[in-house]
């Protein structure tokens, strides 16, 4: 029984279809990546999972059961547009939110202190939210979504607007939650985060799921079309090789686009004839490339 | 249910933590104290001793001056008879010439022996010489009026003496003819005038009803606005999305409305306590007694009705304010959006206050059944006329049914509205979206 199962959900706003038959399953202790350009329907999908809006068709099952108010307590939500009470003390509003989700005040307080300690900001307990910097407000927002130890957490653009140190901090927290068996639905524009955290992904484009499945397998399906070449001196005539479509020179060497993997061998031999090769790699496609390819092409 | 109380306590606690709320409450309490003490304060200034004005005159022996001097002597006698004379007459010796006399009197003003002086002219048709009061003061009304009264008195005495009326006849002539009015109820009703009301009681009731209606209006407006503002800012700051995933919108909305109700109630009770405390202070009791206002004459049933109508009126308006608050995404747009409700409550308020001296009109009768007006208007009828009990119950019944309807509608709008961002939704969009949600 998967903690979260979405079956063919469908949502229409007027004439516009916002989500068109998305299905996905998220296992226990799994972070599922939901990707897509702006307006692709990610947030709508997440809102349907949260019960904020109801799907026009299809169904969402939580541990095999349909949506009900009781399910709310096992959900955690980090909305894309952050929102808390600016003029209320951090402890007051977080304990309030935790209590609304069925936590006792004592447990909530303990949980809050644990998280504040973890993020290295125990002194914020008695501060008003508006007194904190934006990045720190985001930490509080994150705590708000996990303080009640939810089974399913929905993170919409979890790391946007954070400095690299804080991104690492939050990423570590997300990983820790995963180890504890929390199921997470995760959306972001930062592909490297997805590659680092997610096992399975769905790429949405214009309300449809255009690519779905295990991240490793998906990458395997895409041809390796990029060669990184590092050499002692300049290499001439790379453009003339068969199968090479584009050569770009950068600080450490060359980034070469190829049509097939066979061209890689040609490049290596060609380069070794002229100079010493320090680095040669036929790169796996990055998620970024796959994303741009999928979403970008469809844009044409 | 526990979530309901969590929302209520959070709402109440946050309100009590805000400085502005505490300060406004305090200011109002102070204003009420000042208002309650006003009659006493006024009397304090009035009783500040009767000021006496010394007025000079010339003791002349010939011509107009002689007639005048005689009149002045009579005035002097009149004022010495008074318990608290506000005029004292001071005699000046005759210098022989008019100019010399004036000069002497003016010197009296300069030396601060007198405030002004009297000069006399020819004898008039009324039998007294023309009197002129000269002083440096601008329109010295109180002294002039006092002098006028004294002169009138002297003349009346004079005429009586000439006519040879007896002392008894004089008393009879001056005894005022009086007529008393009393408001009665021909049949038993919800009003408070079953035993008949004297004019004083009527006046007290009118005052009380105005105070109740004004309080009702203000509490409803202020708390209603607060509800709308809080909901809009929750929506604007997007905390709403988290709240809705934590607790059902209905619980949330009613928790907020009820929390605000407790705050409003707290303020009312506080203000009431401040008022009662002030009024029960001995100096105020006497002051109100002097103005013929007796608080023990207030009918307790009037207060009971006021409480019922306050509760009903508050919840009816609160539902609407909550619904409106949920539609708007930014607090800047809120003032405009709540305008229709404000106008609605203003209409009820004005129908009530403008009809206070005429509470029997058809408009008042009709308005006392209309749900949004009835809290104000039926209060007026109960306080000042004697509506049959069934009419009051009917009005309350209509009010309760509309609370239910608007509560349901409000919750529905709220459920829909809180997730609609961007421009304010049109009615059509709202209706369509509302159909999608079960509450």
Describe the structure.
Chain A: This is ABC-2 type transport system ATP-binding protein. The complex is a heterodimer of chains A (300) and B (439). Chain A is α/β, with parallel strands linked by helices and 300 residues long. Chain A starts with a strand and ends with a helix. The radius of gyration of chain A is 23 Å and the shape is globular. In chain A, helix 2 crosses helix 3. Chain A has two domains: 4-219, 3-Layer(aba) Sandwich (Rossmann fold), CATH 3.40.50.300; 223-284, 2-Layer Sandwich (Alpha-Beta Plaits). Chain A has nine helices and 13 strands. Chain A is 34% helix and 29% strand. Chain B is α/β, with parallel strands linked by helices and 439 residues long. Chain B has 17 helices and four strands. In chain B, a hairpin with a 5-residue loop joins strand 3 and strand 4 (129-135). The radius of gyration of chain B is 34 Å and the shape is elongated. The mean pLDDT of chain B is 82.
Summarize the topology.
The complex is a heterodimer of chains A (300) and B (439).
Chain A: E1 4-13, E2 16-26, E3 31-36, H1 42-50, E4 57-62, E5 75-78, H2 90-100, H3 105-118, H4 134-146, E6 152-156, H5 164-179, E7 183-187, H6 191-197, E8 200-205, E9 208-214, H7 215-221, E10 226-231, E11 244-250, E12 253-258, H8 262-274, E13 277-283, H9 287-299
Parallel strand pairs in A: 3-7, 3-8, 5-6, 6-7
Antiparallel strand pairs in A: 1-2, 1-4, 8-9, 10-12, 10-13, 11-12
Chain B: H1 2-17, H2 19-46, E1 53-59, H3 63-81, E2 87-93, H4 98-110, E3 116-123, E4 129-135, H5 141-163, H6 167-174, H7 199-236, H8 239-246, H9 249-279, H10 282-290, H11 300-327, H12 334-337, H13 339-354, H14 362-367, H15 374-384, H16 389-417, H17 427-436
Parallel strand pairs in B: 1-2, 1-3
Antiparallel strand pairs in B: 3-4
Helix pairs in contact in B: 1-9, 2-9, 2-10, 3-5, 7-9, 7-11, 7-13, 7-15, 9-11, 9-16, 11-15, 11-16, 13-15, 15-16
């Amino acid at each position: 029984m998967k903690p979260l199962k979405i079956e063919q959900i469908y949502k229409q706003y007027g004439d516009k279809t916002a989500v068109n038959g998305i299905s996905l399953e998220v296992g226990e202790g799994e972070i599922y990546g939901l990707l897509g350009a702006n307006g692709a329907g990610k947030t709508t999908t997440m809102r349907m999972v949260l019960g904020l809006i109801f799907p026009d068709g299809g169904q969402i099952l939580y541990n095999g059961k349909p949506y009900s108010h009781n399910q709310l307590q096992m959900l955690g939500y980090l909305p894309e547009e952050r929102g808390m009470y600016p003029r209320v003390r951090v402890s007051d509003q977080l304990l309030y939110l935790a209590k609304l989700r069925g936590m006792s005040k004592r447990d909530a307080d303990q949980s809050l202190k644990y998280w504040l300690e973890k993020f290295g900001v125990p002194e914020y307990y008695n501060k008003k939210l508006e007194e904190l910097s934006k990045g720190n407000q985001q930490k509080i927002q994150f705590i708000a979504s996990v303080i009640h130890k939810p089974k399913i957490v929905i993170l919409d653009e979890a790391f946007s607007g954070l400095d690299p140190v804080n991104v690492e901090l939050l990423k570590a927290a997300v990983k820790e939650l995963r180890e504890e068996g929390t199921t997470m639905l995760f959306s972001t524009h930062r592909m490297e985060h997805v590659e680092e955290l997610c096992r399975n992904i769905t790429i949405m484009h214009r309300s449809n799921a255009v690519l779905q499945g295990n991240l490793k397998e998906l990458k395997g399906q895409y041809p390796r079309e990029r060669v990184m070449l590092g050499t002692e001196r300049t290499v001439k005539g790379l453009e003339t090789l068969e199968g090479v479509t584009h050569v770009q020179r950068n600080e450490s060497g060359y980034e070469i686009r190829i049509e097939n993997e066979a061209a890689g061998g040609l490049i290596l031999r060609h380069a070794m004839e002229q100079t010493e090769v320090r680095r040669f790699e036929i790169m796996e496609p990055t998620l970024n490339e796959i994303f741009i390819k999928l979403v970008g092409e469809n844009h044409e | 249910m526990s979530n309901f109380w969590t929302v209520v306590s959070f709402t109440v606690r946050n309100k009590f933590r805000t400085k502005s709320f505490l300060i406004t409450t305090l200011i109002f309490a102070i204003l009420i104290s000042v208002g309650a003490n006003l009659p006493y304060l006024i009397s304090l200034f009035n009783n500040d001793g009767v000021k006496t004005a010394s007025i000079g005159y010339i003791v002349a022996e010939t011509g107009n001056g002689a007639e005048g001097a005689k009149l002045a002597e009579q005035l002097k006698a009149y004022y010495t008879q008074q318990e608290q004379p506000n005029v004292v007459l001071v005699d000046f010796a005759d210098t022989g010439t008019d100019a010399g006399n004036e000069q002497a009197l003016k010197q009296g003003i300069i030396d601060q022996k007198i405030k002004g002086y009297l000069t006399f002219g020819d004898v008039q048709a009324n039998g007294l010489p023309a009197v002129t009061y000269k002083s440096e003061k601008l329109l010295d009304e109180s002294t002039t009026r006092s002098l006028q009264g004294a002169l009138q008195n002297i003349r009346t005495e004079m005429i009586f003496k000439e006519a040879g009326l007896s002392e008894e006849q004089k008393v009879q002539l001056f005894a005022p003819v009086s007529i008393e009015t009393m408001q009665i109820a021909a049949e038993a009703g919800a009003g408070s005038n079953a035993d008949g009301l004297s004019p004083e009681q009527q006046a007290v009731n009118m005052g009380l009803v105005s105070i109740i209606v004004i309080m009702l209006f203000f509490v409803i407006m202020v708390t209603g606005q607060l509800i709308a503002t809080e909901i809009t800012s929750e929506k604007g700051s997007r905390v709403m999305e988290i709240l809705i995933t934590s607790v059902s919108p209905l619980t949330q909305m009613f928790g907020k409305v009820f929390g605000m109700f407790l705050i409003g109630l707290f303020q009312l009770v506080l203000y009431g306590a401040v008022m009662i405390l002030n009024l029960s202070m001995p100096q105020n009791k006497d002051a109100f007694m002097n103005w013929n206002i007796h608080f023990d004459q207030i009918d307790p049933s009037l207060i009971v009705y006021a409480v019922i109508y306050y509760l009903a009126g508050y919840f009816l308006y609160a539902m609407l304010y909550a619904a409106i608050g949920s539609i708007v995404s930014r607090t800047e747009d809120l003032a405009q959006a709540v305008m229709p409700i404000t106008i609605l409550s203003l209409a009820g308020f004005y129908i009530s206050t403008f009809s206070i001296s005429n509470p029997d009109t058809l408009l008042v009768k009709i308005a006392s059944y209309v749900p949004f007006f009835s809290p104000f208007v039926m209060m007026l009828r109960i306080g000042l006329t004697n509506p049959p009990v069934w009419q009051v119950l009917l009005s309350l019944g209509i009010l309760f049914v509309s609370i239910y309807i608007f509560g349901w509608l409000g919750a529905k709008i709220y459920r829909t509205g809180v997730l609609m961002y961007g421009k304010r939704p049109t009615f059509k969009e709202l209706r369509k979206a509302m159909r999608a949600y079960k509450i």
